[in-house]
């Protein structure tokens, strides 16, 4: 008599109340953050009329976030992660409240101090985000059984991409109807509401009790753990170089204006296309169990991402360009879900904060530096050759990583899950 395998449940992670609340709070908070980003960028540019001022917006957030993230990982592994997340989210909400006050007297403040008050708030927001990210992500790993890790990763990715679609659209509408002050108020309301939901998620035990360990030793141990683990460092490297060289998104304004000639409305479609593709693929992956050669699937996903960048670079057709961006977003979603699953199952709980901090440094730096690389390459080579070059370099990075990280290339999900369960049972 044949024994049937249990049917895959695409909503397994969402059936866990704590994880369901986590997804909801992250969705609401991320929409609030996107609304905030739209408002501050529009307001700064409307005051300065200087594109460089927009570049400084990203720099003011990225530099402090990357700089403090390792310390954020350290305290995440030593303190209550839920408490850290709640405190940082309330501080991020307070940033929007301060900008409400500034917006009420914006011309007088700008005349006296220029954009400095905005950049100070953004810098503080970067510090808060650097402390928030390791804790709130590592906290989510404790809310579901390990066997549901791929399913949870798919839903986490879906919620983030939904916020990436809805947040900017909502921010633009609010700014058009309510102005900067009303948009900041809406952002603060969303993040405050999202943070309230975390109080309904039960706190989890503190990850580590190694109180005598110095910060230096703690950070050294975390970095050493990442770089001695071929699976983790290989997965992070793939994402780093894919984003670093595949930064076609930074060139979308040029494509919309001069190459595809579709104007600002078309630019909005181009920007939304990767997120739409990512949401569709993440939802699809939630309905299909992750199994088999996950390492090989990760490499194939990054190869697909690189190929879509190349085709987009040479395309003069609007439908083809939109399709390539959506496909690229889909391949990137596969990469994110697989990488997130690998990190969760390969990392013991007491190290997850520090590992997520290193992950944030890889991802944060690659996004900012990738945009810079795209701009420099476009200046030296021209826009289309620079985008094609970036896609080709993404493919090269896959080949190099495949050679130096054969354990990742050959990794199977069942083997990874079995090792994670054995490690948990021996604790």
Which tags fit this structure?
single chain, 427 residues, mainly alpha, Growth Hormone, Chain: A, 16 helices, 81% helix
Structural class: mainly alpha
Regarding quaternary structure, what we see is single chain
Alpha-carbon distance between the termini? 38 Å
The overall pLDDT average reads 82
Strand content: under 5%
Number of self-contained structural domains:
2
Low-confidence stretches: none
Give the tally of β-strands: 0
The helix-strand sequence is HHHHHHHHHHHHHHHH
> Would you give the CATH topology of the largest domain?
Growth Hormone, Chain: A
Total number of helices: 16
Please tell me how large the radius of gyration is: 21 Å
Architecture overview:
The protein has two domains: 196 residues, Up-down Bundle (Growth Hormone, Chain: A), CATH 1.20.1250.20; 205 residues, Growth Hormone, Chain: A. The protein is 81% helix and 0% strand. The mean pLDDT is 82. The two termini are 38 Å apart. Helix 1 crosses helix 6. It has 427 residues and is mainly α. It has 16 helices and no strands.
């Amino acid at each position: 008599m044949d024994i049937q395998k249990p049917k895959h449940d695409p909503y397994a992670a969402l059936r866990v109340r704590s994880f369901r609340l986590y997804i909801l709070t992250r969705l609401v908070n991320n929409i609030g953050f996107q609304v905030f980003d739209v408002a501050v960028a529009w307001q700064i540019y409307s005051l300065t009329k200087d594109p460089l001022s927009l570049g400084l917006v990203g720099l003011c957030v990225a530099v402090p976030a990357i700089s403090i993230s390792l310390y954020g990982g350290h305290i995440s592994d030593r303190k209550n992660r839920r408490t850290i997340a709640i405190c940082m989210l309330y501080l991020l909400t307070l940033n929007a409240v301060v900008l409400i006050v500034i917006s009420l007297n914006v011309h007088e403040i700008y005349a006296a101090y220029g954009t400095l008050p905005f950049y100070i708030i953004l810098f503080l927001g970067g510090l808060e985000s650097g402390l928030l990210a390791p804790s709130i992500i590592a906290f989510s790993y404790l809310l579901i059984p390990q066997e549901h890790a791929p399913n949870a990763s798919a839903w986490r990715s879906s919620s983030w991409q939904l916020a990436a679609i809805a947040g900017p659209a909502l921010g633009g509408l609010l700014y058009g109807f309510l102005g900067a002050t009303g948009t900041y108020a809406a952002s603060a309301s969303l993040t405050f509401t999202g943070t309230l939901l975390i109080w309904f998620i039960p706190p989890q035990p503190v990850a580590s009790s190694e109180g005598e360990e110095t910060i230096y030793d703690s950070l050294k141990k975390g970095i050493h753990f990442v770089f001695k683990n071929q699976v983790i460092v290989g997965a992070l490297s793939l994402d780093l170089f894919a984003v670093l060289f595949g930064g076609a998104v930074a060139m979308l304004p040029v494509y919309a204006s001069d190459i595809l000639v579709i104007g600002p409305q078309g630019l909005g479609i181009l920007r939304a296309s990767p997120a739409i593709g990512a949401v569709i693929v993440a939802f699809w992956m939630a309905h299909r169990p992750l199994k088999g050669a996950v390492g090989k699937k990760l490499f194939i996903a990054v190869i697909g991402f690189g190929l879509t960048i190349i085709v987009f670079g040479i395309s003069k057709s609007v439908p083809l360009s939109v399709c390539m961006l959506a496909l690229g977003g889909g391949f990137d979603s596969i990469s994110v879900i697989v990488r997130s699953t690998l990190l969760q199952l390969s990392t013991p709980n007491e190290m997850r904060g520090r590992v997520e901090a290193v992950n944030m440094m890889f991802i944060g730096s690659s996004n900012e530096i990738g945009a810079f690389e795209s701009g420099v390459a476009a200046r030296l080579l021209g826009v289309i050759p620079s985008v094609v070059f970036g896609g080709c370099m993404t493919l090269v990075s896959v080949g190099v990583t495949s050679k130096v990280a054969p354990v990742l290339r050959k990794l199977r999900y069942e083997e990874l899950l079995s090792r994670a369960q054995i490690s948990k049972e021996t604790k």
